[in-house]
Each structure stands twice: as structure tokens, then as C-alpha cells.
């Protein structure tokens, strides 16, 4: 079950709405009727899932269906889609079966308007967030020597960790170290890039992200695509300096240029771009985002819940 929907169902909204979480892969068509005021789907749209989605629509014809688009974005298409026209057709057919498409960031919503000609009336810009109290509790630390960088997430092409590891090799281990948390299909390939250097360490999946971040000087997010980018929100809430690519939902989380204390943008997203961004951070004596930025990030959870409240109230 998706963490985002689990968090929503466990939030204070449960006092106003009754949630029932059902795990379904949508691979086989099942004409199950659900006794619900509204159905929310959180699964990546695909041709393979289309028959199951059609069956769900037919079996629940009078029930509004909301689809949370958490998977696709403008940069996803650029990096992963060989036939954009066919991909666009798949999205249009899928979205035609739902009443609303819920987006996790404004850049993603804007892309759907441009790419799929999706009308604004079909979109609900609910955004993405999480409860961040454990991250807000992370205390500010003095910069380490060597500089301690952290990166975390699924070890996949999307996250750009291959570029990061190659960039780290440019620095002596007396200047910079990198700890990577997470697991995924690219784990072995990434470990081979490291070879036998102690400068980069892999610690596998972690349960306590805030504790992981507490010992880092900065977090690197070199993602190739990111519909939202929850790692950035978590890192900012923890007060950490953030080195990130300005793409998709990550770009939305960047403050205005004159207010970017604690942010270093990777431009362009390349090995060279990452090296230059790390060099700039290495020259900083005081690292971290501002306290006002941390507080603004903490408020994002309440703001998102309010948008969900307004949306669900339409179907009560």
C-alpha cells in the first residue's frame, strides 16, 4: 500500500472521512463494486492496467473515481518514452475513465495541460507532503571535515546516483565522503562504479530517515525526473543544505533566487554539473537552510490536508 495514502488515511482527516485502503495491482479486470462515496487510485497508468481500470469504471459507474498521478512528469517522458504519441494516447484514454486527475506538483499539472491537453477542470492540484515532526527535531550541526554528503532513495536510473558517484570520484576522500541509503535494481551496477574506494558507502534501506540525515552536512538529489521529490522536503525540514537538479517537482521546491540560502542547483545535470555544485558547497563554512524555510516546509503537510479536505468534501 502506498505510503502517501496510508499517511492520508491516518491523518486527522479520518475524523471527517472514513477511509478504506485496498491493495490491488490492477493487472486483471475485476468487476468489483465498492460501497464508497469516492474511489481514489494510486497506481502508475499503463496499457497493461487499462482493462482493469475500465472494469473498475463499469462496475462503479455512478461513483466518482479520482486518479493520483504520482509517476509521470515532463522529464520522465524525455528520459524514458521512445514514442511520445503512443504514450500520450495511453494517458488520455486512462484519464478519460476517471473524474479527476490529482497531481503532486504544479509543474506536473502544467505538463499534463501542455502534453495531454488535459483541461484544468479535470485536474486537482492537491500536491504532496508528509508529517515532518521527526525531521524538524533534527538539530543543526557544525560542518564536518571531510564534508559528509548523503543521498537516499530507490537505486534506479531515475535518481541519478550513477552521475553522483562518478562526480564524487573527482574529490579526494579527505575532502568529501558520500553515504547512499536505499535499494533497487541498479545496486550492483552502482557498487561496481565505486570499486574498492571507501569514500562512498552503501547502507541499504533505512527506516529512520531523520536519524540518517542528522549526521550529514548536505543532501544530494541528482534526479533525472521527479514528479514531486519528497526527499527534498524531508532534507529541508531537517535543516540540511540541499544540492539538487532543478527539474519537475524539485524546481517548485526551490525558493526565489534571492532567498536560496542552503540550496545549490546542479546546472546542467551532468557529472561536471554535480562536481561544480559540490565544490561550491565545499567552500561554504556555514551549511543548511534557513529556519524560515524549515517552518514553511513543515506547514506543507497542513496545507495539503486542507486541499484534500476541500476535494473530498465535494463528494460527501
TrEMBL record:
Presence of keyword tRNA-binding: no
Molecular function terms, GO-annotated:
glycosyltransferase activity
| Keyword Hydrolase carried by entry | no
Database matches in InterPro entries: Glyco_trans_1
Task: Give an example GO biological process.
Answer: carbohydrate derivative metabolic process
What Pfam family does this protein match (any one)? Glycos_transf_1
Q: What keywords are assigned to this protein?
A: Transferase
Q: What sequence ranges are listed for the domain Glycosyl transferase family?
A: 148-285
**Under what name is this protein listed?**
Glycosyl transferase, family 4
Amino acid at each position: 500500500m502506498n505510503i502517501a495514502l496510508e499517511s492520508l488515511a491516518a491523518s486527522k482527516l479520518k475524523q471527517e472521512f472514513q477511509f478504506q485502503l485496498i491493495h490491488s495491482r490492477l493487472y486483471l479486470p475485476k468487476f468489483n463494486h465498492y460501497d464508497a462515496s469516492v474511489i481514489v487510485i494510486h497506481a502508475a497508468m499503463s496499457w497493461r492496467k487499462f482493462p482493469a481500470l475500465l472494469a473498475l469504471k463499469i462496475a462503479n459507474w455512478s461513483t466518482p473515481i479520482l486518479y493520483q498521478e504520482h509517476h509521470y512528469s515532463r522529464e520522465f517522458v524525455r528520459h524514458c518514452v521512445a514514442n511520445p504519441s503512443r504514450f500520450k494516447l495511453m494517458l488520455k484514454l486512462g484519464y478519460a475513465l476517471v473524474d479527476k486527475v490529482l497531481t503532486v506538483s504544479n509543474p506536473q499539472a502544467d505538463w499534463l495541460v501542455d502534453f495531454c491537453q488535459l483541461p484544468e477542470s479535470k485536474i486537482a492540484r492537491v500536491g504532496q507532503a508528509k508529517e515532518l515532526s521527526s525531521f524538524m527535531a533534527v538539530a543543526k550541526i557544525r560542518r564536518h571535515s571531510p564534508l559528509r554528503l548523503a543521498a537516499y532513495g530507490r537505486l534506479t536510473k531515475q535518481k541519478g546516483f550513477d552521475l553522483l558517484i562518478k562526480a564524487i570520484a573527482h574529490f579526494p576522500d579527505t575532502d568529501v565522503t558520500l553515504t547512499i541509503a536505499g535499494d533497487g535494481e541498479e545496486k550492483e551496477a552502482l557498487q561496481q562504479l565505486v570499486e574498492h574506494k571507501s569514500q562512498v558507502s552503501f547502507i541499504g534501506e533505512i527506516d529512520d530517515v531523520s536519524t540518517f540525515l542528522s549526521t550529514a552536512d548536505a543532501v544530494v538529489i541528482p534526479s533525472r525526473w521527479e514528479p514531486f521529490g519528497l526527499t527534498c522536503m524531508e532534507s529541508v525540514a531537517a535543516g540540511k543544505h540541499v544540492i539538487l537538479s532543478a527539474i519537475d517537482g524539485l524546481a517548485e521546491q526551490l525558493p526565489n533566487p534571492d532567498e536560496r540560502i542552503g540550496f545549490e542547483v546542479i546546472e546542467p545535470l551532468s557529472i561536471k554539473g554535480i562536481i561544480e555544485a559540490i565544490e561550491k558547497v565545499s567552500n561554504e563554512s556555514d551549511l543548511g537552510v534557513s529556519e524560515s524555510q524549515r517552518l514553511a516546509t513543515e506547514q506543507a503537510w497542513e496545507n495539503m490536508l486542507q486541499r484534500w479536505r476541500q476535494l473530498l468534501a465535494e463528494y460527501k
